[in-house]
Amino acid sequence: MAMRIARFLLLAVIAIVYQRPVDAVTIYRIGGEGMPEPELDMPFDFVQLSWAEADPKLHGSAELLQVTPDFIAPQELDPTVNLTPLLKERGGKILSLTWTGWGPAFGRDLRMFDNDRSTAFLGDGDWGGDYGAIRQKSMIFDLGGIFLLDRIVLSPRDRFLNERFIETLTIGLSDGDPLKDGTREFTSGTRGQTFDFDLAHQLFENNNSVLNLKLPQVYVRQLLFEAPENTRGIWEVAELEIYGIGFAPQATYLTNTIDLGAQASLGDLVWGGRQEDAAKIDVAMRSGDDDDPNNYWRFTFRGDERARFDKNGVPMKLAAYKKLDSGEKAGITHDTENWEFWSTPYDFTAQTGALAGSKPRQFVQFRADFTSGPEASGQLDYLQFKVSIPPVANEVMAEITPNRVAAGEVAPFTYKIKPQLKADDLGFDSITIDTPAKPASVDAVRIGGIEESFELLALDETGFTIRIPMIDTDQTGELIEVDFQAEVFKLGTVFAGRVFNSERPEEVHQALTPGDADPLVDGDLLRVDLQNLQQKTIQAMRLSSPVLTPNGDGINDEIAIEYDLFNLVGGQPVEVEVFDLSGRSLVSIASGGAASGRFTTAWNGLDRNGSTLSPGLYILRLKVDTDGGAAYSERVVSVVY
Q1: DSSP label at residue 339
Q2: pTM of the full predicted structure?
């Protein structure tokens, strides 16, 4: 009895030690298991997850990936390794054609790829009960994914090298794309079970017993081997070897749905890895309120009726759906009621971004899509993110007005925020609002229609942060309004925002949810459009001075070049170049990619060789490449001493 009590007390102590604090920041890391734990200037929980934990039962998967504790990367085929005996463990399969149709390779088929050169498949046509009336050997080797193949090698046993050769042979290739079915040049199969292939090799009257056939450099999912009986003698294959090269062109990792323990404020996501030229890694995430992001449907067999419930009226989950007969399965759809859609992919080179969620959520899931070239790939070392429990607020809706302004002109805006807080929410006293350029001013704050004092904590090219009186459950549902002035350069600019508690600076800053914060205002978005959609790409180009005097006296030794770009998406090529009056290029001052916004560069009067230019007139030319062609703007500058 005493032992039982002692054991109970020990378990109770362990439970207390590992219980999550009531107010806690938690940092999760997936992968990167060899890295040191993160550091914060406050207590926090750290949860290490493994890339290897991806489990289909928990909605995780790893397709065509090399998975290690420290990173995931697309599989790369070793041109010296025979793939055939490895296909099953790589997710592939080998099919054989019999009189009943295509089925798994069996019996004497297995001698063809058993890694034993003392056994062989005999192509003597004596296939009897195994193969029925099929008078040719047809096999499909499914790689389990799309790869580049290098060659196929077929050889008999050593003692038959000089006599047992395949006289007639067909090798076909298919990328498995169902949209191309029926368009390829060669068909193999019977009884309505047919596959079609592009021909890679078709041999007649061959007398070479060992065949080493180079394959075309195309992406392949399935390889067809087909050979009839010889007209003279028999043929045999001791080993059919397939060799590939390069990286899987497409690979995907899907984490399990991750339970955060309770509704949490979603913070920032950071990651590490590398992305080579001609390769791409797209990282996205979604968040939800339960552990399953999908709805599962079954046919009720009452006409075309579908239901999300099993025969006992219980909503179906993944395990129950898998147990349905194939004819009962009516498809899987996204659970739009409880889960967000996948976010747009993050900019991988930025190595950081905000977790996407319209409100605090309990579950998150991440996806990484890899695109590789034959000799270029990348790897994802880790994903790391921070959450706070309890959240700052149960929900904080926000909208901006006006939602349409003139491009490039300072305009007044009102940012409207309506918080909903529960008893254990942290509350907030600080607001950050992102702007496309440095705001001209922050003018007023009203809470419940009453003007309140505020403190401007930060104001720069990315936006501003203010401190206001504490918002807690007493102010739940109160309308908070922030007046400021700013410029907009791009159609559909989003003024994102976050709220946080300044007394807990390491807690997650909770993203604001676009919504109807003020029923008296039309629109429920944080997006602002442009009134004039015909604006030029280059709206303005300004010089700090029309005269440059590079003599080292500290006055006009260099000039600033400022320009405004409108309605550019992504990193469009931009270059600022200096020409003499004859049109000869002297130096490129700035080049690279730019999006919409205001940009500044400088010129110090030097040419591309580092020599100071002679006194005279020079042309500064701004060039922007767009989908509609190149846009230019020019200014003249005088170089004097």
Answers
A1: B
A2: 0.76
